[in-house]
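tool_log.txt
---
The assistant was asked to compare two proteins side by side. It first ran the structure predictor on the initial sequence, then on the second. Raw inputs and outputs are pasted verbatim so the downstream comparison step can read them without reformatting.
(1)
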Amino acid sequence: MADLAAIPLTRIDGAADSLAEHEGNVLLVVNVASKCGLTPQYEGLEALYTQYKDQGFEVLGFPANDFGAQEPGTHDEIAEFCSINYGVSFPLFAKADVTGEGKQPLYAALTEAKPDKIGPAEDFRERLKGYGMTPTQDPEVLWNFEKFLIGRDGTIAARFAPTIEPNAPELVGAIETELAK
């Protein structure tokens, strides 16, 4: 597996970044989209970030247009949407693929290291099929708002299905456990 901290990233404003810049913090890496049924999770993600940021917690949002073309906007449009509609203050990154052959290196490393999700992935997969969608199969990211929790030491502590809300006890508990380490 690639060293997560060494993978180059680009912020939504074009600035260079990497997970090394966030070393020592607990990170929740989430692929996000503006036109998805799960988009209201931005509100909960911002609430988590606000609640725990002073304890060394960050949400890192990665816009992706992989699923149903639900993130069609430009970087400026995405940043404006997130700010105006959800008051997002956590870092957003450049739009890039999170699944398939062209997925960005960070997501290739995350899915390789943590192929299994916590949460009702199969139920959600069946719902997507009911809408005429063709969902991915594990270990690929299933849909928008899948979450990877990375501990202070840089290891991937957990992976959560898209339907696990930001305020879900299993997610909040995992964050608090990692913050306590």
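(2)
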Amino acid sequence: MTYQEKKSIVSILSTIFIFGFYIVYRYIQYPDEGVVGTAIFHYWGSFVLILALVSIIAHIVISIIFIIVYRLTTGEEEPRFTDELDQLINLKAYRNSFFVFVSGFLLAMVSQVLDQPVPAMFLILISSGFLSDVTTSVTRLYHYRRGV
């Protein structure tokens, strides 16, 4: 298994772990059912901002740990260059990720047009962000294994 495949698998697992852990952590803090207005927007706004921060920091830490473990177990350094194949795979992964997120964004807006509750919009947006992140890693893994 190549370095890129291992990195993609670690990225998928870390994304699922970070998102799952954060969802469980924040579910406990969900406001009461009767709360409407600014309290619900405060909850969802802080949910998204803190998730973004936690996700970025956790991905950086996990990447550093992965590089250290990879170097210790294989004795090799991680590749310092990207060739045309790597760039093409990254472009395809970002395209698929973008498609998933934009589809989720449009679905979230449709939920508001159909008079769904505000939390439904935020849940759709957060889910599409999660799925787009997973889509990036899955697409990379697929193309590194099967080719372009």
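---
observation on (2): The mean pLDDT is 89. The radius of gyration is 18 Å.
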